[in-house]
Amino acid sequence: MGEAPANMVLIETEEDVDTLEVEDPDRVAYLTQTTLSVDETDRIIRRLRERFPNVTGPKSDDICYATTNRQAAVRQMALECDLVLVIGSRNSSNSNRLVEVARDHGADSYLIDNQSQVKEEWLEGKRVVGITSGASAPEELVQSLVDFFRERGTEDVSEYEVVQEDVRFMLPKEIRKAMAAAS
């Protein structure tokens, strides 16, 4: 939006698509914020495609793979949990989406910076608590929250893995050439 403000429109909901007015409906393209809710983004893109059949999008999914994987895990985890705690910053889009996904799938959910923000009333009547974090939250914060529950007497702690993350990023061409020349 900062690069071409005169040529871009921010769409946040399906209703925004319905009211969108464009000069040439055959010349519409979209980009997505990489940390949006995957489900919500899919619905908005479907609506764009219904309204603008010739709409152009990215060649590949431009939602961050870590965001996609975490949302899929929270979606499944929320079905088995009474409460989902998400460690992340208030200004983190992907952390906020994780809270929304958990709530949308039936679990109470709260965004916290660390274990010191857990409120006793959240835990009342809860048997199964899920813990996750935003993509940029340090692993040590997750471990501290797990330790918090262990110190309270929790014995059954298990890791919930939905997707094996095995994404590999190619080194830049210049580095690959330099490495090949050095071999």
Total helical segments? 7
Mean pLDDT: 85
Which stretches are low in confidence, meaning pLDDT under 50 for 5 or more residues running?
none
Radius of gyration computed on alpha carbons: 21 Å
Structural class assignment = mainly alpha
Total domain units: 2
Largest sheet properties: 3 strands, parallel
Q: What is the H/E order?
A: HHHEHEHEHH
Between the first and last Cα atoms, what is the distance in angstroms?
44 Å
By CATH's scheme, which homologous superfamily of the largest domain applies? 4-hydroxy-3-methylbut-2-enyl diphosphate reductase, catalytic domain
**Estimated helix fraction:** 25-40%
**CATH architecture annotation of the largest domain:** 3-Layer(aba) Sandwich
- Morphology: extended
Strand order of the largest sheet: 2-1-3
Number of strands: 3
- For this structure, the CATH topology of the largest domain is Cobalt-precorrin-4 Transmethylase, domain 1
Report the top-level CATH class of the largest domain.
Alpha Beta
Proportion of β residues?
5-15%
Brief digest:
The chain is mostly helical and 183 residues long. The protein has seven helices and three strands, in the order H-H-H-E-H-E-H-E-H-H.
Give me some keywords for this one.
single chain; 183 residues; mainly alpha; Cobalt-precorrin-4 Transmethylase, domain 1; 2 domains; 3-stranded parallel beta sheet; 3 strands; extended
Q: How does this structure look, described?
A:
By secondary structure, the protein is mostly helical. The chain folds into two domains: 5-51, no CATH class; 68-151, 4-hydroxy-3-methylbut-2-enyl diphosphate reductase, catalytic domain (Cobalt-precorrin-4 Transmethylase, domain 1, 3-Layer(aba) Sandwich). It is 40% helix and 8% strand. The protein has helices spanning 14-19, 38-51, 65-78, 93-104, 120-123, 139-151, 173-182; strands spanning 83-87, 108-112, 129-133. The longest helix has 14 residues, at 38-51. The N and C termini lie far apart (44 Å).
